[in-house]
Amino acid sequence: MLGFLIAAVAGFLTPQLEGPVAGPIVKALEGYFPVMANERRLIAFMAALLVAAILAAAFDSGSVFGVIIGAILGYFGPRIFEVLKKVVEGRRDSE
After folding, report:
1. Measured between alpha carbons, how far is 95 from 22 in angstroms, rounded to an integer?
2. What is the largest CA-CA distance in the chain?
3. Which of 52, 67, 55 is CA-nearest to residue 10?
4. pLDDT band for position 23 (cuts 50, 70, 90)
5. d(CA 93, CA 81)
6. What is the pLDDT of residue 95?
7. Cβ–Cβ under 8 Å, residues 66 and 7
8. Stretch 20-46: mean pLDDT, rounded?
9. Is residue 22 within 8 Å of residue 47, measured between CB atoms?
10. pLDDT tens-digit readout, 42-58
11. pLDDT tens by residue, 64-90
12. Alpha helix (H) ranges present in 18-63?
């Protein structure tokens, strides 16, 4: 369960890691091949997921499946929350 929570936090923090973490990685990679602007967030997500996996392994907590689901839910969590919020508000308005 701890691995799931660590990965959820890592997924949630991905947009904030885009500059300070993905920036230096992109600069290092651009010496070998071009990196597109839309790939910066993917690189930040991969770095966050790598750290989450290392922490989950270090604490011997969670399975690979739990870490992956946690990262996905953490990354898309704000969007899912907004959709659910609109659904609930729509039901209140119709009553």
Report:
1. 47
2. 60
3. 52
4. very high
5. 18
6. 65
7. yes
8. 93
9. yes
10. 999 999 999 999 999 99
11. 898 899 999 999 999 999 999 999 888
12. 23-29, 40-58
Task: Output the six-digit token pair for 8.
Answer: 């959820």
- Kindly state the tokens that stand for 17: 């890691």
* Lookup: tokens for 54: 């290392």
The CA distance from 9 to 71, in Å, is 7
**Of 76, 44, 52, 75, the residue nearest 4 (C-alpha):** 52
Instruction: Name the residue type at position 79.
Output: R
Structure tokens belonging to residue 25 = 């990685």
Q: Which two tokens stand for residue 60?
A: 């011997």
Phi, psi (rounded to 5 degrees) for 36: -75, 155
Mean pLDDT of the chain: 90
